[in-house]
Amino acid sequence: MKKPRWSQGRLCRWLLVLACMCGVLVQGASAMSIRELRALERSDPEQGEEYVVYYLLGTMEATLHAEAAAVRAGVPPRICLNGRRLEPDMAASLYRTELRRNADLYEADMPVALVFANALATVYAC
């Protein structure tokens, strides 16, 4: 009779290591919070503002792509550009306007992407 290639203990250890690695990868992909974005801006007096603008631009693009994917999957649209263009320099003003407009709604530990999704849904409502 042939010996099994994997013993039960070895297989369990392998699955445990694999689960831990997946957990680390998933945690590393978490979104930046409002507090973390403010800290990033203050961390570098010379380029902190530019870091924030680039992050907000990426968040705006990701929000639009996620919205497009949801619409393709059959979800009713929340953001309708209707032929209007979103310029890169609009990202920071959209974000800051939404934070001012609904200051009592957002807490410092909420993700920046949530603020951006709400800003785009308010300004470009369907």
Q: What features would you highlight for this structure?
A:
mainly alpha; 126 residues
Word description of this protein:
The chain has helices at 8-28, 34-43, 48-72, 90-101, 112-123. With 126 residues, the protein is an all-alpha fold. Helix 2 runs antiparallel to helix 3, helix 3 packs across helix 5 and helix 4 (90-101) packs across helix 5. The longest helix has 25 residues, at 48-72. The chain is globular. It starts with 7 loop residues before the first helix and ends with a helix.
Strand content: under 5%
Largest sheet: none
Mean pLDDT: 81
Strands, total number: 0
Fraction of residues in helix: 55-70%
* CA gyration radius, whole angstroms: 21 Å
Shape assignment: globular
SSE layout and pairings?
Blueprint lengths: L7 H21 L5 H10 L4 H25 L17 H12 L10 H12 L3
Helix pairs in contact: 2-3, 3-4, 3-5, 4-5
Short description:
This protein has helices spanning 8-28, 34-43, 48-72, 90-101, 112-123.
